[in-house]
Amino acid sequence: MRKNLNRKQRGGNFKVFALVTVAFIVMQLLSSMGMLKSSVKGQLIPICVYIVLAVSLNLVVGVSGELSLGHAGFMGVGAFTGVVVASSIANVVSNDLVRLLIAMVIGGVMAGIAGGIIGIPVLRLRGDYLAIVTLAFGEILKNIIGNLYIGKDSHGLHFALNASGLVMEPDGSMILNGPMGTTGVEKIATFGVGFALIIVTLVVVLNLIHSKEGRAIMAIRDNRIAAESVGLNVFSFKIKAFVVSAFLAGMAGALYGLNYSAITATKFDFTTSINILVFVVLGGMGNIFGSVISATLLYMLPEMLRGLYDYRMIMYAIVLIVVMLFTWSPQAKNWVQAVSSGSVMRRVFGQKKEAEDE
């Protein structure tokens, strides 16, 4: 029984990694042959970012069973931390790839610290209360970033919560300018690093899910009282999943921030958190493969419908409703299971064969 379960897990993991790797190779080949439009190229890195965000949020929502609506806040912390770090070490580290990796790691660490600070009081709540408080904390993080001024001169970095309080030398430069965000950011993000980040995220999340800690987290999700009765530290396991999720979101945010020449804090509001949650729900709670597929398709869908102009968001909403109804319909689930198992095809071809024999 255990061997069959392990074989099934390895098969599912292989399917996810194979899909991501094949997609990366295909995109690289098409790009090298000049067959990708500039609009499609511009979407490659954001797709990688949102795949990481969806998979990391699934660790909290699907695996831990906690409804978090502040994931965009951790993404914002990582994004602006990454921009500040990359700008600060530009004169010290000349290699763009090394600078990008350093910025992503530090952005992830800062987001993880923010996740730990927020998670300590928040994860003691449950259900709707948890969702409301995480939403509030996400908005707090966004507003703090939106009112922060950071400048750089020969003496280093300078921080202030208002423009008049920032004292710098005349030759200094602004990195973060309050509500105006950052401008003139050097775009050093690459699709290859985005692919590598997806692989790292999948390795971390899947190994955590299939480890003893992951099984304990899912046991707490399924029956908190039973888990507590056998001695599991509920809060400890919850905070681990929450911090890991925040760390990965911060790394994705740093990659996102260094893909654009200008970003503002308004990008990381609750609407972005809801969009990421939609990716998770439509892909399937706890289904990592589904999160990868849904994040890719749903991010590309508005761009694919751009030719419909004013109707494209209406069509996007209709597609979401149809997919949701199809996903949660018992009849649809039975049909998909029958198709995947091959029983439908055997029935169809079996009827054809009987007709030919007659």
Structural summary, described in words:
The chain is mainly α. Helices cover 72% and strands 4% of the residues. It contains 14 helices and 3 strands. The protein has helices spanning 2-32, 38-63, 71-88, 96-122, 127-146, 191-209, 212-222, 224-229, 234-257, 270-283, 288-304, 312-328, 330-341, 343-357, and strands at residues 149-153, 156-160, 173-177. Strands 2-1-3 form a 3-stranded antiparallel β-sheet, with helices on one face. A hairpin with a 2-residue loop joins strand 1 (149-153) and strand 2. Helix 2 (38-63) runs antiparallel to helix 9 and helix 3 runs antiparallel to helix 4. The longest helix has 31 residues, at 2-32. 36% of the residues are buried.
Describe the SSE topology.
Layout lengths: L1 H31 L5 H26 L7 H18 L7 H27 L4 H20 L2 E5 L2 E5 L12 E5 L13 H19 L2 H11 L1 H6 L4 H24 L12 H14 L4 H17 L7 H17 L1 H12 L1 H15 L1
Antiparallel strand pairs: 1-2, 1-3
Helix pairs in contact: 1-6, 2-6, 2-9, 2-10, 2-11, 3-4, 3-5, 3-9, 4-9, 6-9, 7-9, 10-11
